[in-house]
Known about the structure:
Layout: E1 2-4, E2 11-18, E3 21-28, H1 67-76, E4 82-83, E5 89-90, E6 96-99, E7 102-106, E8 112-117, E9 122-124, E10 128-130, E11 137-140, E12 143-147, E13 154-158, E14 166-167, E15 174-175, H2 180-183, E16 189-192, E17 209-215, E18 221-227, E19 230-237, E20 241-247, E21 259-261, E22 267-280, E23 297-300, E24 308-312, E25 328-334, E26 339-344, E27 364-368, E28 373-377, E29 394-410, E30 420-425, E31 433-438, E32 442-444, E33 447-448, E34 451-457, E35 462-467, E36 476-477, E37 483-489, E38 493-507, E39 521-523, E40 531-537, E41 544-552, E42 557-559, E43 562-564, E44 568-569, E45 575-582, E46 589-606, E47 609-614
Antiparallel strand pairs: 1-8, 2-3, 4-5, 6-7, 7-8, 9-10, 11-12, 12-13, 14-15, 16-22, 17-20, 17-22, 18-19, 18-22, 21-28, 22-23, 24-29, 25-28, 25-29, 26-27, 26-29, 29-30, 31-38, 32-33, 34-37, 34-38, 35-36, 35-38, 38-39, 40-46, 41-45, 41-46, 42-43, 42-46, 44-45, 46-47
Amino acid sequence: MRALFSFGLIGALAVACASGRERSTVTTVSAGSGAPTSGAGAQGGGGSGGDEANASSSATGGASASSASSVAASSSSSSSASSSGSGMFICPQGALICDGNIAKICDGNGGFSMATDCAGGVCAPNLGCKTCTPGKAQCSGDTSILCSDDGTSQTTSFCDPLQGLSCSPMTGLCVGSCTPENLGQSYFGCDYFPTITNNQLLTNKVAEFAVAISNTTAFNVTATVTKGASTIKTAMLAPNSVQIVTMPWIPALDQQTTQMVVDGAYRLRTTRPVTVYQYNPLQYKTNSFSGFTYTNDASLLLPVNAWTGNYRVVARNHWAPSFSDYGGLYAVTAAEDGTQVTVTPSPTGGKVLAGAGIGSNGAGVVTLNSGDVLQVFTARGGGSPDTSDLTGTLITATKPVQVIGGHMCTNVPYNVPYCDHIEESMPPLETLATGYIVTAPLINPSSIKVRMVRVVATVDGTTLTYDPPQGGAPTQLGVAGSYIEIPLTAADFSIKASKPVLVAEYFTGQDQGGGSGDPAMTLAVATAQYRTSYLFHAPTNYDSNYVNIVAPTNATVTLDGMAVSNLKPIGGSGYGVARIQLSNAGDGNHNISANLPFGISVYGYGQYTSYWYPGGLNLTPLGL
């Protein structure tokens, strides 16, 4: 930028009234010149001599500003403007106007005390020389470039065609149903990172890693799966449908080694908002020689628009039978290059397999690029159950990340066969709440099976209450990252915490009773994040599938077009539960809605295997 100082009177601002209409011009006067003139024909006053000046010009960098309009804005907005006897208005001292790409400061006497050439930038009315025009956006191909409100910086947004986005030449902004403004924060999105977690004991690799994509819109949706720079496959989803998309196994993620795997995650993008569930693996039985898979789970994937940089892990104790060691785990996936991840161990998370920048004490800092996966495992801690447990570990990141917690294979309880793979996506800390309701699962259409309930503190000194009261259940959580567990309960109850908590539930092993199933893990959804509708998928190749519905007792709930009745009240919470077996006659897709917000969990059983996941949720930051 170049400052041009005037010596004597270098300019005058004129606003002339003619025929009852206000007009404004900028006239420039040079010392020793004759009378000033202007294109508007206004006669100068308050100074002698001058040259004709152009009243308007275009600013650079996509900005367009008229010096006449800038002057008018400055003059009309100031109550301290002076006037001469001839009706001329002079801009007040210190007012800043733009004359083309030159910023001028009025001296209050009809001239300017300073003029600055905004070379390489733009002149912004009332602000002066800036990098760009404040608040203005422009397109560069598929990229939107938006100037900050103060004009000092620019942000770029890629209008991804694989998410149905384009850059509007009218506004300079990305447009489409997948913009952040249209998506909000829930489990609906257009950008997901399916991530395989270690399921090393799945020897029957004929079974496939897969996602179920639910399209709840009235439009066709194109889904594209990539890995790094390679396109893996595309799929077309019909309106109001669910489609299964399979993906190859990634051997590096099946190693029980703490490591960072470059491009270890798949990326799934859709042209309209969808919901996504991942299955590890999808099938529980195959036509191969071994028949059953024996180790499965499923998880609700959270879209990138709901990610943050703050999480606590829920996993399970290291499991060390006499013949081997099986670790609890978490997997962190980045969406953006240069994401710095910091890991702080919980009271039970200080024994891990070291690697990739994570020490054996569970602490470390790792930098991930888009699609990279950091997978960390417990080391043996000793005891029965083993004391080493990643639950409560704090994950923070400089950019949004996805965190999945789980276990490669574990008994639940530790001494009841048989082990199974477990996993679930962690919700961001910002979305956690203080009120939850947990309900026991069916094991067959007429019988409930006991499960384990775990509550994890996110803040020091958290107290818990239960409705109805749960005899012997702990009521105090110590430091952030610590947890309590309620073992082998078939009760339905609400949990009220004094501060935000995470709540997990675990299926028990098949030998615990019921004749089918093995461990699986789900996370309870806070009542504050309930929704009024869900479209979900329950794989029909399992022997049986169920949904637990938790709704206000006065709600009207409809599942697949049929009214849901007989909600069983849960203490004095005002909520009730209905447990319903799902039909395997169709394609596994189900619609459920209500006139009031409610929650669902979806689960299924096969011989020595199972899955369990929350059917959906809002992910609104609650500020608790």
